[in-house]
Give the backbone structure.
Amino acid sequence: MNEDVCNIVQGSKDPVFKSSVECARNFECQAGCGQILIEGYYPDCFVEIAIRCFKCGAISKTPPLEDGEVLTTIITSVIKGRSYLIASTIDYFPSVIMSAPEAVEKAHGMCRPLGTEVIRPVDVALLDFTRARYVELTSVDYNSQKNVVRKNGPNVRFEYPLTWALESLGRIMEQDESKTSHEALVAIHIIELFNSICDRWAFSHRFPVVAKQFGNKKNFFHTIFSLMAADMLTSDGGSMVGLSLEDQHGVPNPDLYIRRGAAEKFHLEVKAPEEFQIITGSTDEGRIKSRLQKVLKGSSRQINRNSRGVLIVGASIDDNEAVRNLERWMRNLVRSRGAFHSGLAAMVIIVRRSDAEGPFYEMISATNEHYSSFNPWTSS
C-alpha cells in the first residue's frame, strides 16, 4: 500500500482506538504481526481508514461499507493525503464514524435519489414506456396480471394498481373517451407516480432490488410510499436513509432505517392501507379511523422498545376533507395511545394535496410524548 494513502500512524504499542462500549472483536495488523490497531472494533465505525502498524510498519485498511449501506450523520472525515500520528490510545464511542472522504462521497452517491423527474405526455407512448419499465424492474408476467385485471375489473385494482391503470387508460384512449373522467385521472396519477419514483431512484444501488416489489400482489403502494418517504427525508431532512432489502425470519425488519450510530439503527416502518389509496380508498370516517387504529396497533411488531423508530402511513386519497380528518385522527391517536407504544418516536402520514399546479405529497408528523428515550424526531 502506498505511503500517501496512510491516514493514521500508530505511535506506540498501544491500540490507536479503543471502544468505550464492550466489544470482543479487534482489528489487527493485516500483515500478520499480531499488533492490535483497534481494540473493540465496530467495523462500521471505521470506513476505509488506513493505519500504519507501530510494530512492523505495514499499512492495514479497514473495509468499505457494503454497497448501498448508509452512514450516520456524525462523521469524522480524515483529510485526503494527510497522516495523523497517534501517540496514545483514543477512546471512541460507536455513535461516531471515521471515514475516508472518498467513502463518504461514494455512500452518498449510492443512497440518495439522484435522478431527475421527466415530464412525459399522456399518450400511447407513455403506456408502452411504463409497461416496459414495469416488466424490466419486476420481471412479472404482465399478460397474466392483465388477464386477472380484465376478468375481475375493479375488484383487483389494489392488487395490481399499475396494471389496472395501464389497461384502463389504454381502453379509454382506444375508445376515444375523455381523459378527464375520474377513472382516467386516477389511472394517470398512478402511472405518473410510478414513473416519478423510478426517475428519482434510478441510480440508487439498492433500487433494483426494492423495485421488484412493485409487482408483488398488494405491494405497489407500499413500495411507492417507502421510496417516497426515503426521498423526502433525504432531500428535506438531510438524513441518509437506508433501504432494507429482505426480511429475516423472527427478526423485526422495518422498511427503512437511519443510522444513529455505527451500531444503532433508527427504524422507519411504512404502511399503505388499501382504505387510504386513491384507487380503492374510502372517505368514510369510521372506516378510516378504525383502520388507522389497527395500523398503529399492528406496527408494534416492527417498532417497539427493542427496535425503536417511526411509523409512516402513506395515503393517496384525493379528498381534502378526508386528509384533514386523517391528520386530526393521527394526532389524537398518538396522544391517547402513545403510552402503549413507548418505542414509537412518532407517527407520520404522507398525504396527497392539490393546488393550481396539480397534486403533490407532503409529510406530517405527530411526536409521541411517551417515547422512552431521547426523541430524534422532535425537531422534524
Notes: The CA atoms of residues 201 and 241 lie 13 Å apart. Residues 182-201 form the longest helix (20 residues). The chain has a mean pLDDT of 86. The longest strand covers residues 344-355.
